[in-house]
Amino acid sequence: MSVDYTIVLHPTIQNFVIKQGSGNDPTLLDVDWRGFGVIGPVIINTPTYGDVEINLPISTFERFTPSLALSIKASDAGQLVNTRLMDGDEIKAQPIGNWHFLFDPTGIGADASQYGFQTGSVISSFTMGESSLREGLIREQVTESAFNSDKTYKITSFESSGNASIDIIGFANRDVLGTSEIFGVTPNAPEGYASTSSGEFPAFILYGMAGAAAAGGAAIMLISKRKLDKEKGHYQQTGIDPTQLTGVQTSASSGGYQTIRGEAQVKGLEDYNQHRSYYDEEKPQVEEKSEDKPSSKGGALPKGFESK
Predict the structure, then answer these.
(1) Taken in order 70, 74, 77, 80, is the CA torsion positive or negative?
(2) What is the pLDDT of residues 244-280, one digit of tens each?
(3) What residue numbers bound the domain in which 78 lies?
(4) Of residues 240 and 175, more confidently modeled
(5) How far apart are CA 137 and CA 161, in angstroms?
(6) Is this structure's pTM higher than 0.85?
């Protein structure tokens, strides 16, 4: 059996402005609200089932299968099915400094003025949910347990990995106030700052990437050279010094001319004739057989001509 829980909340958050800014003086925004959740039961009223609790997984079994719910709660799986569903602690546990940041300078917000921003401000985007060396592995959480009824049943809980995004009208700079993280927001980005999704990256990032590529290439070349030097020690190829070779004639006269043919032989070895190729050895010649033909003393005569 598979039971899926999907809860969509549309909260309204108020009083998150810590300090109102003006001009180059940034507006300070509270960002600790990003990891909100609910501890304990949450009961809603539905037309079909009346009051229903939606924060604890066991509530579904208590509503539709009470006896099964008792067996589960009395086993080791009791803690698993009483884990709250509305839990944003994973998002709160990831510092804003580890989120990916981009800003769009073309953002236009008509209602931005009521929060102290000018219309036409940039839009800052903070995104969390991608695994990397900085954030670590962000993956789904899997928990297993079991309970006994007519036999032993295994319960496996799959919780999707946390992901979140925050979009702010204006250029937002992350900061820390006491033990809380905040955003310092100005209508526009500081002069000379370039980190947009469509513009240029900061120069230090480009130089850093180029330096990393150069270091990687140098490391690969060094490893390849060491490997090649090591292989040369085992597979070094040697040859014969050309000064130790001498030319040997391997052709013979044929009729009235001499062919130009020869090969190299190492000095000091036996004569070439002692290791001549099989095809160079003399073989008996096959004479062409000719038949005796009567000799004719006369020339060609017309047909029917008889000599007397």
Answers:
(1) positive
(2) 777 766 665 555 555 666 676 666 655 555 555 555 5
(3) 17-191
(4) 175
(5) 10
(6) no
Distance, in Å, from the CA atom of 147 to the CA atom of 234, rounded to the nearest integer, reads 64
The torsion angles phi and psi of 248, rounded to 5 degrees, stand at -130, 130
CA distance 108 to 158: 40
Domain assignment present for 219: no
Residues 6+ apart with CB under 8 A from 41: 53, 55, 56, 59
Structural domain contains residue 285: no
pLDDT tens per residue, range 154-165? 989 888 887 888
**Which of 205-209, 213-217, 295-299 has the lowest average pLDDT?**
295-299
Place of tokens 């604890």: 56
Determine the length of the chain: 308
Tokens matching residue 17: 């402005």
Fill in the amino acid letter for 304: G
224 falls within a domain? no
For the chain, the domain total comes to: 1
Q: What does the alpha-carbon distance between residue 32 and residue 63 come to, in Å, rounded to a whole number?
A: 35
The residue assigned the tokens 């036999």 is 151
* Cα–Cα nearest to 183, from 132, 106, 117, 107: 117
Assigned domain for 217 exists: no
